[in-house]
Design brief:
Layout lengths: L2 H15 L19 E5 L2 E8 L11 H9 L2 E4 L7 H16 L7 H13 L12 H10 L11 H11 L4 E3 L5 H9 L6 H11 L3 H15 L2 H14 L1 H29 L1 E7 H5 L3 H8 L3 E4 L2
Parallel strand pairs: 2-5, 3-4, 3-5
Antiparallel strand pairs: 1-2, 1-6
Helix pairs in contact: 1-3, 1-5, 3-7, 4-5, 4-8, 5-8, 7-11, 9-10, 10-11, 11-13
Amino acid sequence: MNRRSALIAGAAVTLLTTTAALMRSHHFSTQPLGFQYVARKGDVEVTLVPTIHAAPKPLQLPTAVRDLLARADALAVELDVTDLSLQQAALMCTERAASQLQRPQLSERQAQKLRQALRDAKLDDRLLEGQSPYLLAHLAAQRQMPEWSVRNGLDRLLIEHMRSLGRPVEALETTCSPTDALASVAPRHLTPQLLDETIRDAKSPSALQRANLLLEAWERGDAELVQRTFAKMKTDSPLQGALASAVQAMRDRTMAQRLVSIAAAHRKVVAAVGMQHISSPPGIPGELIQLGWDIQPMP
């Protein structure tokens, strides 16, 4: 993987997960989970729990999650982050999606702003040549917070713990699902106005502020705070918010359908997904209701 490809791959991941994958440094071994749901259909049961995709320092697996996994037949996650072969596959998916994204003719003002954002992030502004400016603007924002990593996230701990119990781990998405969803809905949203909004946010602390609020919501089990935080993002950056909502809706539908298949095979499943997939309506709970499941919040 060359440096340019790696940077572009990182930018696409940021575009999909900016609001949910960023964390402060904390340990969560005794923190409440909050906003969990139990979905049932007949004798099949799925427990939906929020996970943290990335963090600046290694996290600890909450005791409450260990108890849930001990009683489950299988774990479902968005993707298996422990599979090293996925990195190269994800790169191919990202490059394919990037090739489908619109590359608008930049005005001189936009080009100057984007070049400056890249320089501020200590990136080579020659990356601008031939690459999607939307991805590059998100990459510039990502590079302002380089310590956050999926290696420190909760997903890895969940997967490793479940496998230590000798039980299966299933993926709710294929490697290309997130970037395919982006490529599918993006053409309706990519405009010069969105690019201006994205360049502006590349130098803004708003992503970090949202991350801190989401962490607080996770710690307190406060679903309303999650919803308010995402609502404020859509108010502050309405064009980015519309694109993120469209991508999420497509992913939620795909993951819910896959979760039904996993549950049919394993009967009792814990599904760990990002907070926005649980707390932002309709989300996966809403999709499961449409598929005939009974959904109840856990006390």
